[in-house]
Structure formats: structure tokens, C-alpha cells
Amino acid sequence: MTASSTAVIAPAADTTVQGAVKPPAFIAVEGPIGVGKTTLTHRLAASFNYQTLLEEAEQNPFLERFYQNPQQHALPTQLHFLFDRVKKLQALRQGDIFEQVRIADFLIDKDPLFAQLTLASDELQLYQTVYAKVIETLPKPDLVVYLQASTDTLMERINRRGLALERPIERSYIAELNDAYTQFFYYYDATPLLIVNAEQINLAEGDGDYHNLLNYLLSHTSGRHYYNPAPLP
């Protein structure tokens, strides 16, 4: 993540959705590490001609140290993520509300998941105090898309992309995180929610898988829905 106070907003291209169906103005894509949320964020942005709001986790200066020694570096890692996401959303809030068409690869409501998994009790209490103060009045998405996959699939995707800072990640941490996401979204009702089974679909390279999801999303923009696609041959 970047320490800049300016939201990272990248221009989108290649609009593939024409005016018949209007997508939600502010979409957040979520899911555990390796599930493909940033990939889907970029593809949706291109389809809708929206701009992206990206968390850029690799810019967090504490993250690599956290993966190597979680107990020592959990608190600064977590606070850096929190403050950076808040800055990005504040920049979004301060813009013209009628021009805010954005897709983010994070939902700030799920930030406490990581804190609960990694922080000692006194650190967690400090984090919760800060969190409660800084998230007031932040804009909420019009739709959240939650990508789900098994821990084995997440580990396979993490290993396949081969990022140096992710090499120390242990399977036990991903399993705990994956379970925490499942519990969080089981009870989540703050916004419309689309839960996507991403276990066997290829959103990075599979145009068929992506366009099937896109069509489903455009017809399910309110309420709570679960998309469980069959993989294409």
C-alpha cells in the first residue's frame, strides 16, 4: 500500500458493457489472499469504464517483515493498511458524488479480521479504538463482491504467482484467514452482497468464466446472492 494521502485511481479502458444495464456506482471486490480480487477489479473496471481504487499491499513497508515475524510486526502492518485505506476512501468521499464510479479491491469493514487474527489483546484494543474513530462517515459500496475458494486453491494460486514477499506465508495462516472471511460474510448485511464460488473458474484468463459472472452481477445488484458456476470446458 502507498503512504501517499492521494487515492490510487487508475484509468480503465475497453468498455464492453453498453447502456442497457447500469452497474452499481461503487463496487468493492473482496476475498482472501490469492483468490483473484484485484484481477476481477481490473476486469470489471475495463467492462464498465470505471476507475480503480487499489490497496496496493506490496507498498506496505511492514508487510514482508510481518510475513517473516508476525508477532513483532503485526501492529504497524495493520495500522498502515488501515490508515492508507481510509485516506483512499476519504479522497473518494471528497470528490463529486455524481462522478464517483469506482471499483475497489478492498472493503474497509473487513479490516478487523486481520487484526483479530494477528494482534495481542492489548494491541487489538488499541487498534479497535483507532478503527472506530477513523471509519466514521466513510462511503459504503453499492455492491460488494466476495470471492470464495478453498485454502488449497488459495495456496496454489499464491505459489503460482511467486511473489517474493508472500513466500514466507504459512498454510495455517491462510486457513485461519479463509475461515475468518467465511464467518464475516456469513453475517455481513451492510450492503448488497454477491458471493462468488471462485474455486474452479479462471477470472484472469477465462473470458467465458468472466462474462458469465459479469452477466450474473448485472442482474443481481441488490439483496444477497450466491453465484456457483460450473467451470467451462
Fold and architecture overview:
GO terms for molecular function: ATP binding; deoxynucleoside kinase activity. InterPro entries: DCK/DGK, Deoxyribonucleoside_kinase, DNK_dom, P-loop_NTPase. Keywords: ATP-binding, Kinase, Nucleotide-binding, Transferase. The chain is α/β, with parallel strands linked by helices and 233 residues long. It has one domain (22-227): P-loop containing nucleotide triphosphate hydrolases (Rossmann fold), CATH 3.40.50. It contains eight helices and seven strands. The protein has a seven-stranded mixed sheet with strand order 1-3-4-2-5-6-7, with helices on both faces. Helix 8 links the parallel strand 6 and strand 7.
Short description:
The chain is of the alpha/beta class and 233 residues long.
SSE arrangement, N to C: EEHEHHEHHEHHEHE
Question: How would you describe the shape?
Answer: globular
Structural class of the helix and strand makeup?
Answer: alpha/beta
Strand order of the largest sheet: 1-3-4-2-5-6-7
Low-confidence stretches: 1-16
How many beta-strand segments?
A: 7
End-to-end separation? 37 Å
Kindly provide the radius of gyration, computed on alpha-carbon positions and rounded to a whole number of angstroms.
Answer: 17 Å
Measured as a percent range, the helix fraction is: 40-55%
User: Main beta sheet, described?
Assistant: 7 strands, mixed
CATH topology description: Rossmann fold
Instruction: Please write the CATH class name.
Output: Alpha Beta
